Every structure is written in C-alpha cells, then in structure tokens.
Amino acid sequence: MNKHIMLFHFFLITVFLLAACQFNEGKTTATADEKWTKKAPIQHIAQSQNGVLLNMKKKRYMMSEKEIKITILNESKFELTHGEPFAIEKNINGIWYSVPFKTNAFETGSFSLHPSESFVQNVYLDPYLENDLPPGKYRLVKFFGELLDSKSGTKKNKLILAVPFKVVN
User: Distance between CA 37 and CA 59 in Å, rounded?
Assistant: First the structure.
C-alpha cells in the first residue's frame, strides 16, 4: 500500500513540475502579436480622401529600419494642416491592431500645405517603438487638421489617412 502511495505522489509531483515548466515557457515565448490586443479604433481608413493623398514610395521595410518616408499630396482646393503625430497599426488575421508606443511625446509643431503642394515627412520610429516591428502587414496612420478654403473661408472635417507597408526579415 505504501508503495502505491509513494508512486502516486511521485507521479503527481512530476505532473505539477511539467505543467509549471510549460507555463513558464509560454510566458517567455510570447510574441509581439500577443501584446497587441488593442484593436484600432477605425478599421477602414482610405489612403486618399477629399483630394489629399498619403503615399510612400517604398512599400517593404526590413525589421531593423527605423525611418519611413511618406509624401502628403494636397490636390484639393483647401489648405491642409498637419503635425508630426502618427500611428502604426498591424494587420493580424484581417483586423488592424494598434502597435504600442513607449512614448506619445510628439513635437507640437504644425505645418500648412496649400493646394497643389506636396510635403515629404521622415517618420522616425526609434523614439516611439518598444521593439523592432516583426514581419507582417502594417499601415501608417496620419492625422490632419481641418481643411480650410482660404478664398471662401469654409472648412471641412478633420481627415485621417493611412498608407500600407510590409515589414520583412
């Protein structure tokens, strides 16, 4: 009888140890995707709207790259205002998720873009991202202020545009 009890305890301890080891393994191998659980507030964002286009010549970036160059083209009849703020979102199984930033301390400067003008902005990821972006489909989301028609004084709503890109090994 004692032999059976000892064998049962040995078996029970072995099961607990194996379960504990697997639990710890899961914690240390969590992927970046598992950290990104906050769905993007807007799932469908256009790349162009009201005559304003957000573009990027380069559509593929290496994991180690820390700079993305975007072009804003204002083909509307409105003056466009924008600043530095942007967001990065990752597409996981058809759903966009916000990539967490370690800081949201964007510079507060504002730029004006007149009709028929374009502006090239270098977006530096290094001060904001916690880690390199793992391979996958992403989009850069850019926020714009009101569109102002300087001739008539009319305003249009604020604008949000996004441009897709891929990160590869």
Answer: 25
Ranges of H-type helices in 29-149:
32-35
CA 15/CA 97 separation, integer angstroms: 37
Q: What SS3 class is residue 41?
A: coil
- What confidence category does residue 54 fall into, taking pLDDT thresholds of 50, 70 and 90? very high
- Is residue 165 helix, strand or coil? strand
The pairing of beta strand 48-49 with beta strand 52-55: antiparallel
Dihedral-angle region of residue 29 (phi above 0 means left; psi in -120 to 50 means alpha; beta otherwise): alpha
Burial class (CB in 10 A: 0-12, 13-18, 19+), 70: buried
**Tens-place pLDDT, residues 7-41:** 444 444 444 444 444 443 333 333 555 566 799 99
Average pLDDT (100-128) is: 84
CA distance 108 to 106: 6
